[in-house]
Amino acid sequence: MRRHGDDEVHEHDRGLSYDLPVLARRRMIRLLAGAGTGAGLAALVGCTAEDTASESTSPSAGTSSSTGPSSSAADCAGVPEETAGPYPGDGSNGVNVLKESGVVRSDLTRSFGDSAGGTAEGVPLTFTLTVVDAASGCGTPKRGAAVYVWHCDREGGYSLYTEGVADENYLRGVQETDDRGQVTFTSVFPGCYTGRWPHIHFEVYGSLADATTATAIISTSQLALPKDVCDTVYATEGYESSVDHLGRLSLESDSVFRDGHDQQLAAVQGDVAAGYTATLTIAV
Prior knowledge:
8-stranded mixed β-sheet, 23% strand, alpha+beta, disordered N terminus
């Protein structure tokens, strides 16, 4: 099984300079398909406040807690529009998992449908995204929207694409936001691969119907995970390659997050034994 080696750079390791052309192709595909959302993309925002995440390089082996952005109507600000990378699985670059039965789910750890039926291993991670209305100053939840999320496994591979897990579709899923504008997914903590800070991709759609037909994306962005928690998780079995990769990076040097990550850094709590919870508020 081929994975990310220290001296090997894969397509999704090339950073923003590679991803921008991919994003341009994605947008052109959607435009040609009649799914352009220029007005929606122009209005993208998210909620933020002072970033208080710990940047400790010597985390405790016990409970870790990193406080990410909080928000109020007065400091509601934009969540950056980011590349979805070359492995979105939404039909804009090859395979389309969004139209498959079973993609609407909360537990991302298992593959579904006609996949190989594998299970992603790793430290448990439950994360909640709260989608709010930008026009109201982040004060009104977006009920009935939909969020598609995907991320790499603990070894840095992406299901549907990476050799060795191309027959899997785990660590991908869609949910409709509830009355609080929230979706919650059960997953595993993603690894760190060459050239990218640990992250989770997400796309926001206006409705579940839009998401499951892969049309009319409102927002595409990424969630960043705090360093102290990453250090603790990567000291556990299965994450060995992530230690070296993370040691060569910082949020300030990452190709996506270096221009500012206040609206993208999740608040994370928990420990290795019980698992972690992460939260992030985004506004559209």
